[in-house]
């Protein structure tokens, strides 16, 4: 009865023995038992996915609070995910298919999504890692997408507990092979349609043609050229096979320092100024080599800095801006605000919510990123300067800042296809180290983080700065550094003024020029992205409300307009028009909450109770008026 | 005319020739002596925007600073307001008030004169200006800031004159002063703007109609306070239980603080009632009969009712005032709070905490009244502040009618205006000691609801903002009096009443036919019809309309009640978390977690103006 890709547990899905001291009320266990016998729950395996271990009679808490309600089921660990197969899947109505995606179900945790695993021993929560001597009664899994799962193992057989806990710990924490990580076989099985028209499809930037198309689109082809010098990654593995450099730059220069020190084109503004990025030259102690680097750099520099025709401004993101460590620290603090184990914790953090948010500095980091991007926009838009982003590998903050600048300046990047192409260009082809930054391979314990636009950012690798600033010989660096220092000393006020003026002028203008978009970065304007961070917290959801309500109203209206339009057309052509199918996604769902469509389903099962404080009952006392405010308790209401 | 005779420079002689007025308005007395020859033409131009009875006291050319773009124009001080009139700007004759350039004198919270970089003088009403100002700063109570730099070069006397005129005008105008002229000029046009007119709850008919609408069968309209002799702060009419006699009411109400005994606020279609009353009068010594009367009034036919102490868990009036002052400091354009410290500064004001506390308490009560069909009595010592706030919020949460434009205005009129919320005192009209913007706190609570349930309200954020701004525009008596009695006295209705007083339901013959009193709900006093159109929330879900909503609510309630299969005794030991779940399951519970409570953009308005 279990087909391919479906695994039946050996003795699984047995109902709990009634002799347990249970947190769950007997009726519930009874109901579950009945359901189990009626329905066999099946595990959906992807092609090539294998089950590693499993345990039955695991209780998954709906929400850990004093009521301790939960759902019984099987906990399975495969080589791709941890899955919980609840016995109440039958309650899923049609609506709720909206809450799933094709690969991962509501109760699935992919292995690389696991952030921390905790065990509860005698009411104490401990981090689990390595070999365990004692196995916990309860398993708490914090996911990187901020979900929190709680599994009670009290009713599970001891050997099953051992197997599943150590299995999960091993498979989530041990260093991994890349091929185990993702759904390569699934992706192969899925249809692969290659399309080429860059207007309607994401540009992959894996061919000369794509880059030429982008150059043409931004009118950068006058001054920049696409090169194939790195075809087959012969020069450098970090760089894409094809990229764009200034036209006067001789291609052989790229090979000189394996792509370091080469200004790589990101994007051209309508006025001809360009955004470029460059990975720093290797740090050298030897004066001779430094001399060589200097003359090399001087040559390169002249290709983009030719006053008065072209002036370049260098932004050193490695030392003059956020450090990756800063970002990591802030994100770790920030995410703790959302990894909530129970509602008590939720209300505890609620009291000081704003100051907690602020002290994580995450929002301030976002503000600084946006501000930097506005500064660069100002240089390009108002001062007509080229901007060269400089970073050690040009693959972290460079990606972030350059995508933000393009989002602000180029309306094309704000279309869906344009945005996808932007991510592809700046992050994927830009060589962002997703594997390291997300620590997918679990090779060390340093962690990752994500930017507000959900673009993964960066990880810190502390680099020895010694020697980098040796100023007696290092003329090359002086060239860059000098700019930086002079900027800090002399022109920082002026720069600030320019920025301020540009920012204020733009915001007081009713019309935008060339589709430029500048974000507000004042204190009240930088907000928490509720859909991303609060979606798993039932306490934070507004059923039937929030922006989603407005959104669904809007969709409904559009649908109505469309059907009216169709009716008009029909009348006009006096022919049978195709029936408007309009399956409004958002309609008819009682579960629609402010965090749709990404929120966890809310199942209200806990008993509602009213508080006592502040309530007073009116008794039958005779001397009511004398009693003033002293009333007996609302005991028998 | 002499301004207190303190000095020559601001001695302003009466104008000999009256300037031309606008097309329709009555002529105002123009009093200004300006040196330049162009002044006559200019002043006639200035006067064209005058309200009837408005007098221009002084004016000076200046430049509005701090806002983009900087504008040159004229700063005018009249006996009603301070206006900055940009060059070439023409006042819209249809809506002569509430332009972004007007500051009603009552709205001026603080006036500062600046000279050079260091000389700053804070000008209180009656202060004497010590120097010729280069700039003046007018801080509005509504968080606006008007910064005017005067033109230099021989015009200083005018700068001095206009500044002194503002100081004097503030000293002479009282908070209670109304733009009377506008009322007169608009009164002729009738109240056609109110469609349907918002019942002012000043007649027994209004109360009877509303009672029928709510289906409160066990209640009747009492006329016992028709002459305001039970309580001046109470409306002339209110609802009491059917079987209680007026004589009993009179006796029973005497045992409550300021005579504010228990009255019905709202009747839930499920059968429960929401009542409000003041605290028990400590010095009274009721006899057995009185006690029985009080008791049966409180119980109003229900076997058990819940008495809620409105002040419990909510901020005190002083707390509200302090929080609002802090919030204003934070939101003023010259706030020095760094962007990365904004959130903790906001938290530090505690304003949002108070908003949450109100929402929390109101949703608790609404669960009690709707889902558990329990009658609730709100008791607050004065019964004029938090009771109104809670009662209105509970109705907004539980009654879809209250979420319509008409319903909301009637609600405010009934629970705040008619119920005797001391607007004048709370908004700072009678000195700072008892100032406390409870009504603004209420509006902020409503704004939060609007954010959380954007499809459930017929009115828009724009409407709320308009109401908020109207609090500082003294064109009608709505927010300019503390009690219905004072309001009635002013409008002259009272006299006509007392002479023809007859007990019972009989109406005064003239009634409101001869004196259509204008109220804040006459929006066309302040807004153009295009603006009034924006009061409608385009996202309002028509299915939310009262007719279809009510049954749905009851189904929801039933579902909810079915799940209440626990012994009532267990009520006693719960935390906030579970309580919250209760509310969420009702579907219309507001969220009061910090994550859900947003800071409203209108608060940051001032900042953005900077």
Automatic annotation (TrEMBL), chain A:
Protein name according to UniProt: Myotubularin-related protein 12
Subcellular location: Cytoplasm, Myofibril, Sarcomere; Sarcoplasmic reticulum
Any one of the GO CC terms: sarcomere
Primary localization: cytoplasm
One Gene Ontology term from the biological process aspect of the record: phosphatidylinositol dephosphorylation
InterPro entries recorded: MTMR12-like_C (IPR022587), Myotubularin (IPR030564), Myotubularin-like_Pase_dom (IPR010569), PH-like_dom_sf (IPR011993), Prot-tyrosine_phosphatase-like (IPR029021)
Organism: Cebus imitator
Lineage: Eukaryota, Metazoa, Chordata, Craniata, Vertebrata
Keyword GTP-binding: no
Job description of the protein: Acts as an adapter for the myotubularin-related phosphatases. Regulates phosphatase MTM1 protein stability and possibly its intracellular location. By stabilizing MTM1 protein levels, required for skeletal muscle maintenance but not for myogenesis.
Superkingdom per UniProt: Eukaryota
Keywords: Cytoplasm, Sarcoplasmic reticulum
Oligomeric and partner information: Heterodimer with lipid phosphatase MTM1. Heterodimer with lipid phosphatase MTMR2.
Record-annotated Myotubularin phosphatase domain positions: 205-533
Pfam family, one: 3-PAP
Family as reported in the entry's similarity comment: Belongs to the protein-tyrosine phosphatase family. Non-receptor class myotubularin subfamily.
Classification via PANTHER family: MYOTUBULARIN-RELATED, MYOTUBULARIN-RELATED PROTEIN 12
UniProtKB/TrEMBL annotation, chain B:
Name assigned to this protein: Myotubularin related protein 11
GO annotation, biological process: phosphatidylinositol dephosphorylation
Organism: Cebus imitator
PROSITE patterns per record: PPASE_MYOTUBULARIN
Any one of the GO CC terms: membrane
Family named by the database record: Belongs to the protein-tyrosine phosphatase family. Non-receptor class myotubularin subfamily.
InterPro entries in alphabetical order: Myotubularin, Myotubularin-like_Pase_dom, Prot-tyrosine_phosphatase-like
Entry superkingdom: Eukaryota
């Amino acid at each position: 009865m279990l087909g391919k890709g479906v695994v039946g547990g050996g003795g699984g899905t047995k109902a709990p023995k009634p002799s347990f001291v249970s947190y769950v009320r007997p009726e519930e266990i009874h109901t579950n038992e009945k359901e189990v016998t009626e329905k066999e729950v099946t595990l959906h395996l992807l092609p090539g996915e294998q089950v590693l271990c499993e345990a039955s009679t695991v209780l998954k808490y709906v929400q850990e609070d004093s009521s301790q309600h939960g759902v019984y089921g099987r906990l399975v660990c495969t080589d791709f995910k941890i899955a919980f197969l609840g016995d109440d899947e039958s309650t899923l109505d049609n609506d709720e298919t909206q809450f799933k995606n094709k690969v991962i179900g509501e109760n699935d945790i992919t292995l690389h999504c696991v952030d921390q695993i905790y065990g509860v021993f005698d009411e104490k929560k401990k981090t689990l890692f390595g070999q365990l001597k004692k196995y916990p009664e309860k398993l708490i899994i914090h996911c990187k997408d901020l979900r929190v799962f709680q599994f009670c193992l009290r009713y599970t057989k001891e050997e099953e507990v051992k197997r599943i806990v150590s299995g999960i710990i091993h498979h989530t924490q041990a260093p991994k092979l890349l091929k185990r990580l993702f759904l390569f076989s699934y992706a192969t099985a899925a249809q692969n349609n290659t399309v080429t028209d860059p207007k309607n499809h994401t540009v992959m930037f894996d061919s000369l043609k794509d880059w030429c198309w982008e150059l043409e689109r931004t009118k950068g082809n006058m001054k920049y050229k696409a090169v194939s010098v790195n075809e087959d990654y012969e020069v450098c593995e970090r760089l894409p096979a094809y990229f764009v450099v200034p036209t006067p730059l001789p291609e052989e220069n790229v090979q000189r320092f394996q792509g370091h020190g080469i200004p790589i084109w990101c994007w051209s503004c309508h006025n001809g100024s360009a955004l470029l990025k460059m990975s720093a030259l290797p740090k050298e102690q030897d004066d001779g080599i430094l001399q060589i680097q200097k003359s090399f750099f001087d040559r390169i520099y002249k290709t983009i800095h030719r006053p008065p025709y072209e002036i370049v401004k260098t932004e050193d993101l490695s030392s003059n801006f956020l450090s990756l460590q800063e970002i990591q620290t802030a994100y770790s603090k920030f995410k703790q605000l959302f990894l909530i184990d129970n509602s008590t914790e939720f209300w505890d953090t609620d009291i000081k919510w704003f100051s907690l948010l602020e002290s994580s500095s995450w929002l301030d980091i976002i503000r600084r990123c946006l501000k930097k991007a506005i500064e660069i926009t100002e240089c390009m838009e108002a001062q007509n300067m080229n901007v060269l982003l400089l970073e050690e590998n040009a693959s972290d903050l460079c990606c972030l800042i350059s995508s933000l600048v393009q989002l602000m300046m180029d309306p094309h990047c704000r279309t869906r296809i344009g945005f996808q192409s932007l991510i592809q260009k700046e992050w994927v082809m830009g060589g962002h180290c997703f594997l390291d930054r997300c620590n997918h391979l679990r090779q060390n314990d340093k962690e990752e983080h994500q930017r507000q636009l959900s673009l993964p950012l960066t990880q810190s690798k502390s680099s020895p700065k010694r020697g980098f600033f040796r100023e007696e010989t290092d003329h090359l660096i002086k060239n860059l550094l000098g700019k930086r220092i002079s900027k800090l000393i002399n022109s920082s006020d002026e720069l600030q003024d320019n920025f301020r003026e540009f920012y204020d002028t733009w915001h007081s203008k009713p019309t935008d020029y060339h589709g430029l978009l500048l974000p507000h970065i004042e204190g009240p304007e930088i907000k928490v992205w509720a859909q991303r961070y609060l979606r798993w917290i039932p306490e934070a959801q507004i059923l039937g409300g929030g922006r989603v309500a407005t959104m669904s109203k809007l969709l409904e209206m559009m649908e109505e307009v469309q059907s009216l339009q169709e009716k008009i057309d029909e009348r006009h052509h006096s022919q049978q028009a195709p029936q408007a199918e309009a399956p409004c996604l958002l309609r008819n769902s009682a579960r629609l909450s402010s965090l749709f469509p990404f929120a966890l389903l809310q199942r209200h099962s806990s008993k509602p109770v009213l508080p006592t404080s502040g309530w007073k009952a009116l008794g039958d006392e005779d001397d009511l008026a004398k009693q003033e405010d002293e009333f007996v308790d609302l005991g028998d209401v | 005319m002499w301004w207190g005779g303190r000095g020559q420079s601001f001695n302003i002689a009466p104008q000999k020739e009256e300037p031309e007025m606008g097309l329709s308005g009555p002529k105002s007395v123009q009093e200004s002596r300006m040196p330049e020859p162009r002044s006559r033409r200019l002043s006639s131009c200035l006067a064209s925007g005058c309200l009837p009875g408005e007098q221009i006291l002084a004016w000076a050319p200046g430049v509005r600073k701090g806002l983009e773009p900087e504008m040159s124009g004229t700063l005018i001080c009249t006996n009603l307001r301070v206006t900055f009139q940009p060059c070439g700007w023409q006042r819209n004759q249809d809506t002569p008030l509430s332009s972004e350039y007007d500051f009603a004198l009552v709205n001026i919270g603080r006036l500062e004169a600046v000279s050079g970089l260091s000389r700053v003088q804070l000008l209180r009403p009656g202060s004497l200006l010590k120097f010729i100002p280069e700039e003046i700063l007018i801080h509005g109570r509504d968080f606006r800031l008007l910064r005017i730099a005067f033109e230099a070069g021989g015009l200083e006397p005018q700068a001095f004159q206009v500044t002194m005129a503002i100081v004097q005008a503030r000293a002479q105008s009282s908070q209670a002063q109304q733009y009377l002229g506008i009322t007169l000029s608009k009164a002729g046009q009738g109240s056609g703007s109110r469609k349907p007119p918002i019942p002012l709850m000043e007649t027994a008919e209004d109360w009877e109609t509303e009672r029928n609408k709510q289906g409160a069968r066990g209640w009747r309209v009492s006329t016992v306070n028709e002459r305001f002799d039970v309580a001046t702060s109470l409306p002339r009419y209110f609802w009491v239980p059917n079987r209680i006699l007026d004589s009993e009411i009179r006796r029973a109400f005497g045992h409550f603080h300021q005579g504010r005994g228990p009255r019905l606020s709202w009747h839930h279609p499920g059968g429960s009632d929401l009542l409000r009353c003041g605290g028990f009068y400590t010095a009274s010594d009721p006899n057995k009969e009185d006690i029985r009367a009080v008791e049966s009034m409180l119980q109003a036919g229900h076997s058990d009712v819940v008495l809620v102490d409105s002040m419990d868990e909510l901020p005190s009036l002083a707390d509200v005032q302090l929080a609002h002052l802090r919030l204003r400091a934070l939101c003023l354009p010259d706030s020095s709070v760094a962007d990365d410290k904004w959130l903790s500064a906001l938290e530090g004001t505690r304003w949002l905490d108070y908003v949450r506390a109100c929402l929390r308490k109101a949703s608790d009560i609404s669960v009690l009244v709707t889902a558990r069909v329990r009658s609730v009595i709100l008791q607050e010592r004065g019964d004029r502040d938090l009771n109104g706030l809670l009662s209105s919020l509970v109705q907004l949460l539980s009654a879809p009618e209250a979420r319509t434009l008409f319903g909301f205005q009637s609600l405010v009129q009934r629970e705040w205006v008619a119920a005797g919320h001391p607007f004048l005192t709370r908004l700072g009209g009678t000195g700072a000691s008892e100032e406390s913007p409870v009504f603004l706190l209420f509006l902020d609570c409503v704004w939060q609801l609007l954010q959380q349930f954007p499809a459930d309200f017929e009115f828009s954020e724009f409407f709320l903002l308009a109401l908020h701004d109207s609090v500082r525009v003294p064109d009608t008596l709505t927010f300019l009096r503390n009690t219905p009695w004072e309001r009635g006295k002013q409008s002259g209705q009272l006299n006509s009443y007392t002479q023809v007083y007859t007990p019972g339901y009989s109406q005064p013959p003239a009634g409101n036919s001869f004196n259509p009193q204008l109220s804040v709900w006459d929006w066309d006093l302040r807004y153009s019809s295009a603006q009034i159109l924006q009061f409608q929330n385009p996202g309002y879900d028509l299915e939310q309309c009262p007719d279809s909503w009510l049954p749905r609510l009851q189904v929801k309630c039933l579902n909810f009640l079915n799940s209440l299969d626990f012994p009532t005794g267990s009520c006693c030991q719960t935390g906030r978390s579970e309580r919250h779940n209760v509310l969420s399951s009702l579907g219309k519970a507001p969220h009061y977690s910090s994550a859900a409570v947003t800071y409203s953009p209108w608060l940051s308005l001032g900042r953005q103006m900077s």
